[in-house]
Task: inverse folding
């Protein structure tokens, strides 16, 4: 007998025709048995379904991910706001008086580590507060 294709095996199983043992080769018999066991497994339903709180668990996980993205954006926006605020202050002081702008720039450069450390403390505090609120 020719080698059976998947469609032919499916047709044989659907029509419930059982060819005699000498008509099929060993590999074809094995394929038929595999298909039969597969269909038997597919016809049985699982004993235990999804838990009752599955939807709420999945939606909570999605909300947490979306909130984290929103929090990261907010923290980056706060950091950018600090930088933009210092830049705007320098620009306004330079427009008013060039000497005042230069003094402000020198003061920022002189206390750059204090500015960087303060900004990191601010953003760190925001992140800590968001995590505490998230847990409660």
Result:
């Amino acid at each position: 007998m020719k080698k059976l294709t998947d469609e032919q095996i499916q047709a044989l199983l659907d029509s419930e025709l059982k060819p005699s043992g000498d008509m099929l080769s060993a590999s074809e018999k094995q394929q038929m048995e595999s298909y039969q066991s597969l269909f038997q497994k597919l016809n049985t339903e699982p004993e235990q379904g999804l838990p009752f709180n599955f939807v709420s668990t999945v939606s909570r996980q999605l909300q947490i991910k979306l909130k984290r993205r929103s929090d990261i954006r907010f923290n980056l926006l706060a950091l950018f706001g600090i930088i933009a605020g210092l830049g705007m202050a320098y620009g306004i002081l330079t427009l008013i008086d060039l000497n005042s702008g230069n003094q402000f720039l020198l003061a920022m450069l002189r206390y750059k580590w204090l500015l960087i450390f303060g900004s990191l403390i601010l953003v760190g505090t925001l992140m800590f507060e968001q995590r505490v609120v998230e847990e409660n």
Notes: The two ends are 70 Å apart (CA to CA). The mean pLDDT is 80. The first helix runs from residue 6 to 15. The CA atoms of residues 108 and 114 lie 9 Å apart.
